[in-house]
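Students often ask what a 'structure token' actually looks like in practice. Rather than answer in the abstract, let us consider Luciferase-like domain-containing protein, a protein of 284 residues. Its sequence is given first.
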Amino acid sequence: MTETTAETPQLGQFGVWRHAGGLAPEVGAAIESAGYGAIWIGGSPPADLDVAERLLDATSTITVATGIVNIWTAPADEIATSFHRLEARHPGRFLLGIGVGHPEQPGLNYSKPYAALVEYLDALDAAGVPAGRRVLAALGPKVLELSAARAAGAHPYLTTPQHTREARELLGPGPVITPEQKVVLDTDPERARPIGRSAVENPYLHLRNYVNNLKRLGYTDEQIANGGSDDLIDALAAHGDTQYVAGRLREHLDAGADHVAIQVLPAGVDPVPALRELAGALGL
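Now compare that with the structural description of the same chain:
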């Protein structure tokens, strides 16, 4: 059996976040060839992690991460088995992102999510999944601190550079912080902003965890209501030409992020042309 390395995989400064359904192996290969350092699999992939295995098989060096596995739907023992399978086939290239999702998830007993997350981490420890090979979906201070104590760091979703800065101040220089940032490569706000609003408003502006985090960042009920104010949407889904969007992505790095996971919108469109354009502006 291949010995599992506890060292956190290399991510580079920029990666790509995309729903599992839009990550065919050829898309993963194109992301790698464009120079990105990581592929983040969104949409709560199942415990078999087959989508991660297909991406790893189709690429050679890029890190593949989950953004994120949901602890309520992917049992820890099954995830650990899948982790070790991937590690044996592709040593050191898989990063396990896990999280508690949101209380509005149907059909789940969402009681005591923090305690459930700690128990899940305990089970991963017992199954030999190293802390350095996992990150936590973390927004608020309590889970951010847990991400530093029990994982390599945090993978915040739907955040701003202000959140990144506050997370870095809380955690100090050691833990990795890898925020997701939505982007629309379009210089016309009348076209771009509705694309961003569609991706942000439904479901995230109706989910308690995300709404509470936006309020911690200073956004008001009025800014969050009715699909989100223009300034809120523009903060969460940057739009403009490639140079402007690249500058917005670098704001997270300037605020203390180690890596930014880029989600190109709209979700149903082939992201590869936009990602290649961005790669040039980012110097990849």
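One point worth highlighting: The chain has a mean pLDDT of 96. Ask yourself how you might have guessed this from the sequence alone, and why that guess would often be unreliable.
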